[in-house]
Amino acid sequence: MIEKDSYKTITKASEGVLFKDRNSKFFGYAFPVTSEEEVKQHLETLKKQHHQAGHFCYAYQIGKTAQELSYRANDDGEPNNSAGMPIYGQIQSFEVTDILIVVLRYFGGTKLGVSGLINAYKTTAEMGLNASKIVKRTINVRYAVRFDYKNMGKVMRIAKEKNLNIVAQTLELSCEIIISVRLKKSQEIFEIFDAIFEVEIKNLND
């Protein structure tokens, strides 16, 4: 099985969206994130901006490959699985990652029931994602290829033949190039350089 080597995400925070149900107001926000620390920072900022809101429910997913994927869904005091998981369900539905969606609620005086809450949080998350610009990115592996100057011709010929993306290079007596390779081609490229005498290749993603 060839692992997927692209993913969808957002590159900037969305404008806030608003959903209303029986006087309760639900504000939805989407943020690009790559760490739990960033998740905490966005939540703290929203809590300062909306200090009268009663619930700050959210879900996030971080990671680009199946092995590194992590997620969390938080109901923040709403009935169990009535908020965080409906929000996370929209992250899965839109197939996005490295994203945080927060839906905060101002209570309007009328209880919505669990099914009403599920609908409100799901709908607000969906609106937030629809208001976001979703982009597709490739998953790349970065390698350092080290070699003596005398072997530069061999290395550069392979780089040209395979149309490799060289992101940095040091070409002196002792040379090094940093290449970025799409995940599905990474093993093939590694084996080509690894088989050359006096050329060393190292995975920088490890």
Automatic annotation (TrEMBL):
<dbReference type="GO" id="GO:0005737">
    <property type="term" value="C:cytoplasm"/>
</dbReference>
<protein>
    <submittedName>
        <fullName>YigZ family protein</fullName>
    </submittedName>
</protein>
<feature type="domain" description="Impact N-terminal">
    <location>
        <begin position="22"/>
        <end position="127"/>
    </location>
</feature>
<dbReference type="InterPro" id="IPR001498">
    <property type="entry name" value="Impact_N"/>
</dbReference>
<comment type="similarity">
    <text>Belongs to the IMPACT family.</text>
</comment>
<dbReference type="Pfam" id="PF01205">
    <property type="entry name" value="Impact_N"/>
</dbReference>
<dbReference type="InterPro" id="IPR023582">
    <property type="entry name" value="Impact"/>
</dbReference>
<dbReference type="InterPro" id="IPR036956">
    <property type="entry name" value="Impact_N_sf"/>
</dbReference>
<dbReference type="InterPro" id="IPR020568">
    <property type="entry name" value="Ribosomal_Su5_D2-typ_SF"/>
</dbReference>
<dbReference type="GO" id="GO:0006446">
    <property type="term" value="P:regulation of translational initiation"/>
</dbReference>
